[in-house]
Amino acid sequence: MTTYLESERLTLRPFAAADADLLIELDSDPAVMRYLSGGAPTPPEEVRDRAIPAILAGYERWDHELGLFAAYEKDGGAFVGWFCLRPLRSGPREEAELGYRLRRAAWGRGYATEVSRALLAKGFAELGLRLVWAETMAANRPSRNVMEKLGMVLVESVPVPEDMAAVEGAEQGGVRYEITKEQWAPGRA
């Protein structure tokens, strides 16, 4: 399959319909889903019938330039999770969301920071983005640390969706970080 992006240790490629089981496994780990669903797994039929078709439709919409991509270790080829760089469906094309979800075995290895840096470089230098943003729960300190390492700036508090009200830490709300092309440029070396 076509490579979308390479970082020092990981390769990103577009998802295929056959990758549904990888997403089902990822979303079945309570620790991975802690700040997304309170640890409840995503039902397999939701992954197969909704998530995979939406991912594939995103590739068509943005000509594979932006979207959600499967991440694999270069050494050994293990699936580690996914990363995204994608605009909102109704938002400006020059603004994109940065996101990631990694298997627990990949935590603490610097993958989120490494690949996110490479995605910022691609987005700003090659794809014409002017702003990249990311959101997480305020209580999700590991994800916030990644955003801060990237030079992203906390710009506002955001409400937690109603369906996440029972998730641990939801009472603290969510946070939105942003980085502009101009803010990124000084640190890209």
Structurally, the number of domains stands at: 1
CATH superfamily: Gcn5-related N-acetyltransferase (GNAT)
Q: In percent terms, what proportion of residues is strand?
A: 25-35%
Radius of gyration: 16 Å
Structural class: alpha+beta
Q: How would you portray this structure in words?
A:
With 189 residues, the chain is of the alpha+beta class. The protein has one domain (5-187): Aminopeptidase, CATH 3.40.630. It is built from 6 helices and 8 strands; from the N terminus they run ββαααβββαβαββα. An 8-stranded mixed β-sheet has the order 1-2-3-4-5-6-8-7, sandwiched between helices. The longest helix has 19 residues, at 44-62. The mean pLDDT is 92.
Brief overview:
The chain has 189 residues and is of the alpha+beta class. Helix content is 31%, strand content 26%. The protein has an eight-stranded mixed beta sheet, with helices on both faces.
